[in-house]
Amino acid sequence: MRRACALLLRLYPAEYRELFQGEMLALIEELSVERRARGRAAFFWFSLRELAGLLCGGGSEWTAKCGRSRRYLESVPSGEERLAFLIRRMEYAIAHHEFAKARYYAEEERREREQLQERCN
């Protein structure tokens, strides 16, 4: 499932992939494990919905980019807003004993801080 999703994410614009690919793949992987535990039918329908969603999403993102190429992803939060978002997600994950998610968000926060520092230098 992960390979299929990674392949379909290549249909998205590069800017979109750079911002969201890691988080999307991590979430899909986590949900895949959960759906597999529920049985083959649940995993099949989950996989079908996710793959179809990725296909449609890629087309939607290209349409958005072509329609407003100069302002594409303009609504993506600034670095500080993204840091605050990641910290909130990490706190929520810790509060709900989802430690794998918490580690993921901690790593994303670290990367975001590094990127902000690079931009400032």
Q: What are the defining features of this structure?
A:
121 residues, mainly alpha, 2 domains, 5 helices, flat
Task: Write up this protein.
With 121 residues, the chain is mostly helical. It is built from five helices and no strands. Helix 1 runs antiparallel to helix 2 (14-38) and helix 2 (14-38) packs antiparallel against helix 3. It is flat and about 50 Å long. The chain has two domains: 1-70, no CATH class; 77-121.
Extract low-pLDDT stretches: none
- Give the helix level as a range of percent: over 70%
**What's the number of helices?**
5
Strand content is under 5%
Class derived from helix and strand content: mainly alpha
Largest sheet properties: none
Give me the Rg, rounded. Answer: 16 Å
Shape: flat
Amino- and carboxy-terminal Cα gap: 39 Å
Number of domains: 2
H and E order: HHHHH
Number of beta strands: 0
The average pLDDT value, as a whole number, equals: 86
